[in-house]
Amino acid sequence: MRQLAPALLVTAKTQRWSPEEFLRTLVEAEITARDESNAKARLKAAGFPVAKTLDGFDVTASTIPAATFDYLSSLEWIRAAENVCLIGPAGTGKSHVLVALGHAAVEAGHRVRYFTAADLVETLYRSLADNSVGKTLDTLLRNDVILLDELGFAPLDDTGAQLLFRFIAAVYERRSLGVVSHWPFESWGRFLPEHTTAVSMLDRLLHHCHTVVTDGDSYRMKQARQNGGNRTTTT
């Protein structure tokens, strides 16, 4: 308001605005500026590794049904404290959709936090060292949605699995959780050391969950083949 007021006052005098019109325009400009500032702060706090958008995702080239993609894009699942699990081979668009949904949620005013599974478990391990796991979980629950990428890329030990279970149990029915894994649910025992832990974790995760299974060739591999085919060689 302080920056805009002098120039806006000149415009108001020139166009003979009423005091109410001048004040309304000034206040609206202040609200817009604050909204933009808050959005930037939420985006920074989310910790996304890259910028991805829903508009930048080619649904027609994906195995994700259009109706499912439209529902996820509506963000209604966040308002309902539901979960989303994206399961499928590498390079089939799972992480793109996860991060793009996170960006859309930030733009819609939600608080979002992104982690790889390894980063989240490492964060919880550090909290375990000083007995502050509960405090760390409370901090995470200040977000409306937490996105967990690359789950299952590396096996977890007993402690890591228990910490991950404790996190999912804390989020259960309180916040939304987005998860990406290349392992189908029946194979989660490959990276979780105990069958009981896997069952208990999936029980909470899948209770209010939209499961999206992706399939097909890797987009990255297809692009690499195309680039290789288009490359010219001089001798």
Automatic annotation (TrEMBL):
Domain of life assignment: Bacteria
Residue ranges that the Swiss-Prot or TrEMBL entry lists as coiled coil: none
Molecular function as annotated in GO: ATP binding
InterPro entries membership: AAA+_ATPase, DNAC/IstB-like, IstB, IstB_ATP-bd, P-loop_NTPase
Any Pfam family: IstB_IS21
Hydrolase found in the keyword field: no
Entries under SMART domains matching the protein: AAA
Gene Ontology biological process terms from the UniProt entry: DNA replication
CDD domains: AAA
Record keyword Lipid metabolism present: no
Assigned keywords, A-Z: ATP-binding, Nucleotide-binding
All residue ranges annotated as the AAA+ ATPase domain in the record: 80-217
Family: Belongs to the IS21/IS1162 putative ATP-binding protein family.
PANTHER family: ATP-BINDING PROTEIN RV3427C IN INSERTION SEQUENCE-RELATED, CHROMOSOMAL REPLICATION INITIATOR PROTEIN DNAA
Protein name, UniProt field: DNA replication protein DnaC
Lineage: Bacteria, Bacillati, Actinomycetota, Actinomycetes, Propionibacteriales
